[in-house]
Amino acid sequence: MTRRRSPLALLAAGAVTAALVPGLGFVTGAVAVSVDGRARGWQVLTRRSDGRVAFPLPALRPGRHTLAVRYAGSRLVAAASARAVVKVDRAPRTGKGGGGR
Is this prediction's pTM over 0.90? Predict the structure, then answer.
């Protein structure tokens, strides 16, 4: 059997979704996520997960943050990792009284 490469796709909007590239078939194994080098959890891929796992993100301060996901691999699918840098903008200020009377 040949181990196939399994790149991960990352999406971030309140959660990190890690998805193994479609077409790999049934994929199992552990997936771990970290934010700025700090571990945020792990999940196990199952037949029901269809190669996808989602991790809620903590409230991130404004600035750039590095998200990293690592797939441990299985007998048939090679281990893989992916990184993404996200920029969190500062929330707009809302002041009192802006109604000019």
Answer: no
Instruction: State the DSSP H helix or E strand holding residue 42, giving kind and residue range, or none if neither.
Output: strand 38-45
* Amino acid found at 95: G
pLDDT at 99: 55
CA 16 from chain center: how many Å? 3
Tell me the C-alpha distance between 62 and 41, whole Å: 22
Are the C-beta atoms of residues 27 and 6 closer than 8 Å to each other? yes
CA distance 85 to 12: 10
- Among candidate residues 32, 40, 34, the one with its CA nearest the CA of residue 66: 34
Q: Which residues, including other chains, have CB under 8 Å from residue 12's CB and lie 6 or more apart?
A: 57, 67, 84, 86
